[in-house]
Amino acid sequence: MSLPGVLAGIRAAEQAAGRVPGSARLVAVTKGQDLDAIERCVLAHGAFPLGEGRAQELRDKSALRPELEWHFIGSLQRNKVKYLRHVTLVHSIEAPWQAEAIAQAAQGWGRAPDVLLQVHNGEAQKHGAETHELAGVLREVEQTGLTVRGLMVMAPDLDDLPLPERDVRLLTLFTDTARRAHDLGLSELSMGMSGDYPLAVAAGATLVRVGRSLFT
Description:
Elements: H1 3-16, E1 25-29, H2 35-41, E2 50-52, H3 55-64, E3 70-72, E4 87-93, H4 96-109, E5 114-119, H5 134-143, E6 148-153, H6 163-183, E7 188-190, H7 197-203, E8 207-210
Parallel strand pairs: 1-2, 1-8, 2-3, 3-4, 4-5, 5-6, 6-7
Helix pairs in contact: 1-7, 4-5, 6-7
């Protein structure tokens, strides 16, 4: 598939859900891809936010193309915050200390990225704030001065389940995340990847993170 094919899939999912065309935005996940491949497979089709999950890789690419819209979608460690200088949106805030570190670094950058709070998806090895902690984390992150735009959730590994049960589990996760965002007064929802973005769009995703499908 290519980027036009992924966009067509997103638009079809929007139509099936009765949503406004363009209300789900593609974030092109570019980790592991060089700038030539990004130019050829993504930017040749228009302007899209570029999602990086490795901080050093983000640092190197964004330094060469700072005018592009860069998102950080990976787990954030304290010693990697300094690499987020050119980032517009951080998808993966799970604890107030991360926001504090970004806010402090941003004083030297002259600008601060907006952030999303990452919701834990129930898997033991995955990152994210527990659902009962979200309201408290939101308050503490907002106290740092950063703007919290919404929530992000990663789909758990459900490959061992039959397809119908897998889809029900994923749709439930996405729908619950959308409901929590609404209850918190947040409008942005980063949900869905290459294998499950139609379900995420059906649940209300506004940012869909797709990578491998764009480059194969």
